Amino acid sequence: MNMNLETDKFKLGLFVTVSFFLLCLLFIVFGLFDFVDTKVPVFTLFQESVQGLESGALVKYRGVPIGKVTDITLSTSNNLIRVDMEVNLSKLRSDPARDRKAEPINEPEFYMYMEREIRNGLRSRLELNGISGFKYIELDYHDTELPADPKGNAGVESGLRKGGVFYIPSEPSMLSGLRSGITETIAKIASIDYKQLSERLENVLNTANSLLSDPNLKVMLANSEKLTGDLSRTVQSLNAVFTPQRFEELSGKTAAALEQVRELSQKLDRVIEEAKIPDTSESFRNAARSLRDSEQAFNNSMAKFNDTLDALSELIRTLDDNPSSVLSGKK
Fold first, then answer.
1. List of the chain residues with pLDDT < 50
2. What digits encode the pLDDT tens for the residues 268-315?
3. Least crowded by CB within 10 Å, which of 107, 136, 173, 291?
4. Beta partners for residue 162, in sequence order
5. What count of other Cβ atoms lies within 10 Å of the Cβ of residue 224?
6. Strand-strand pairing, 122-128 and 135-141
7. The whole model's pTM is what?
8. For residue range 237-274, what is the model confidence (pLDDT) as tens digits?
9. Order of all β-strands in the sheet with 80-88
């Protein structure tokens, strides 16, 4: 009896041992030892809809799976969607030395790395997982000049550790931007006053029709066509008259005329130089002064001559009136 009991215990122990080893083998085969890896909790905030994102969805860093979504909640203080995640540090390795194996980074190194990359533009974004409609979280870079958080949430530097959990800023997904663009476009199209636009178009067409039916326009077009023909004939006549040979002849004659003008100018310079203009000018000035002096003397002489004539005239009148005055004198 005791022998059978010992046999049963041995079998039970063997079964437990084999089961344990089989369970360990299953863990190894299916990768269920993941729970022993170090994981860091992080979270992000979204303003857009997260329809299609479920707990357990992948978190990727530029396409590399590094974690998964653990919880999705709504923040009643700002109506933002909070997505909690956990990052498996075994997926992030430090740069090893040349002869050493790469080792997973620790939690402080992860925080330093993420803070640096967030300053360089690292953001979380919703992405579609194929055509299934399910979504995942993608960590990638964008322009650092764009706003880091929706609705003016805390900035990159001040919002890294909220409640002891690492915070990763987010950016709108491509679908969100496309949806916003389509909404704005539809709103702009809806705001167009088609009735007023139609009336304006009708007025423009009527004005254009009136303008085209104007007889003056037809006359102007006919005159323009005639003027164009006259101008074309004039150009043809000029081309016929001013042939290249004619231009060469005109150029030669022009050059000869310019040469003659140059020679005449040189001769004129020599004549002026030989004429001694300063001396001649001085002689003219002296002659002018002499003429002025002679004119003054002549004027004086003429004045005296006038006085003499006046005296003779008076003598003649006296003799006519009283001839005896020659003997008796003037009374």
1. 32-33, 146-148, 150-159, 326
2. 777 767 666 566 666 656 666 665 666 666 667 677 767 776 766 676
3. 291
4. 165
5. 10
6. antiparallel
7. 0.46
8. 767 766 777 767 777 777 777 788 788 877 777 776 76
9. 122-128, 135-141, 58-61, 64-75, 80-88, 39-46, 165-167, 161-162
Phi, psi of 152 (to 5 degrees): 65, 35
Q: Taking CA 32 as the corner, what is the angle to CA 29 and CA 37, rounded to the nearest 5 degrees? A: 125
Q: At what angle do helices 244-275 and 277-321 cross, to 10 degrees?
A: 60
CA-wise closest residue to 174 among 125, 242, 105: 125
SS3 54: coil
As a whole number of angstroms, the distance between CA 89 and CA 110 comes to 8
- Report CA-CA distances (Å) from 211 to 162, 203, 206, 217: 73, 12, 9, 7
**H or E element, residue 120:** none
